[in-house]
Design a protein that fits this description.
141 residues; alpha+beta; 3 domains; disordered C terminus; Mobile element protein
Length: 141
Amino acid sequence: MGLSSGDKVPDEKTVWSFREKLTNNQTIEKIFVLFRDVLNAKGLILNEGKMVDATFATAPIQRNTREENKQIKDGDGAALWNNKPHKKRHKDIDARWTQKGGQNYYGYKNHTKVDANPTSTPKSFFGVFLLKNGGDFILLS
């Protein structure tokens, strides 16, 4: 795709707006059907007894000012601390807060899917969680 880890990622409002447009004109369902068909054709979808788990990979809690937090939430976090490269290196502007069972977590969600078929290998991915657990989940990375 030509993307690298240093590329700017769209903020959640841009992703949400794009998803809404795809949903409203019923394009998203067609895309997911095509995506599922491609994965199925490559043998990446196994439907024999699944176990799915989501765990948290916590990140150090950031001590940002209200202004810095607003800038991060608005998608302009990459511009912060440019004059302080040592401080910028310690900041994780991709991690987010979520809640599960009344407990707050800061970091990333790790989703794992394991099929009952012993020849399959576990599928796992890390995702940046943008909304509370149980709400819509937008995968950024």
